[in-house]
Amino acid sequence: MTTDDEPELVHEAAELVRPYVITNGRDLVDDSAFSLLTLVTVAQDPPRTKPLDPEKQRLLELCAGGFLSIAEIAGHTGLPVGVVKILVSDLTEEGHLYVRAPIPSAQLVERQILEEVLNGLQARFG
To answer: How far apart are CA 61 and CA 57, in angstroms?
Structure first.
């Protein structure tokens, strides 16, 4: 005998298994290689290989428009960040994606240097 609750349980169980299935049960060996702000885009000359999994294909389509961060990719795909990192790692190793560190925030400039620049500009241009 079945109840109305069973379809929800099956759906919940499928969501719990899905990340494991997507990554083939693997874990990212060096988790520090990618931060949430690591920028990802499609490589200029991606290799021609066998057809990719749907999730990997979706990542390539997302990144084709320019650089996206790992956090943005996770948000667009609805996949956990850990799964996105594993997929990005795979696609990078295969030559499909190009990854670079985020642009560091600007260092604060000393006030004295700014005043010297301003004084120099005022002396030159009045």
So the answer is: 6
Beta strand pairing call for 97-100 and 68-69? unpaired
pLDDT recorded at residue 63? 92
The predicted-structure confidence for 62-76, as pLDDT tens digits, reads as follows 999 889 999 999 999
Query: Is the full-model pTM beyond 0.70?
Result: no
DSSP sequence for 33-61: G--TT-EEEE-SS----SPPPHHHHHHHH
Helices (H) and strands (E) in the chain, counts: 5, 3
Q: Residue 76 CA to chain centroid, in angstroms?
A: 10
Each residue of 86-109: pLDDT tens digit? Answer: 899 989 999 999 999 887 777 777
In a 3-state reduction of DSSP, which class is residue 58?
Answer: helix
What's CA 124's distance to the chain center, in Å? 47
- Token pair in block for residue 8: 């929800």
Listed in sequence order, the residues at least 6 apart from 108 whose beta carbon sits closer than 8 Å to its beta carbon are none
